[in-house]
Design goal:
Blueprint: H1 8-16, H2 18-25, H3 35-46, E1 55-57, E2 61-63, E3 65-67, E4 71-75, H4 82-98, E5 105-110, E6 115-119, H5 123-141, H6 160-164
Parallel strand pairs: 4-5
Antiparallel strand pairs: 1-2, 3-4, 5-6
Helix pairs in contact: 1-2, 1-4
The protein binds iron/sulfur cluster.
Length: 165
Amino acid sequence: MLNKEITGMQVYYYFVCKKKLWYFSHEISMEDNSENVVLGKILDETSYKNKSKHIMIDDTISIDFLSDHNILHEVKKSRKIEEASVWQVKYYLYFLKKRGVENFKGKIDYPLLKQSKIVELTENDEKQIEKILNEIIDIISLDLPVKVEKKKFCKTCAYYEFCFI
Ligand code: SF4
């Protein structure tokens, strides 16, 4: 994954946890049968069934689905780490814009909460994304994962045992 373009999930993990970003980018995966993951799979299988889902672009970003009026959607279970989701969607808009696809907006859907949030890309966001992409490359180029503080959601992370036991 190191030599490929940055994915939306890597941008998401950049905000969630930089150690997780490193593990994920080095293809270190842990079996995760947590309630969270099971719930995510069920949500994916049962929501927006009439839409074409998981639209892969350039073998790099995977958009959950598209709807009328040029809206790309990202489906999430909860608003707990909303900043990460917002930047993931801004990155999708940036990625499309760099390929000449403009005039799209993003929407984060929270079907379990019956809520949603519109996401747009500003010029400042584009500059910020370029910095983020450079930082992601720096982090994942390291031989070892960065040290990070324990977070309140570490116990529900698939890498918990890897990090703390
Ligand atoms: S357990 Fe915590 S520190 Fe370790 S990868 Fe997961 S979120 Fe990051």
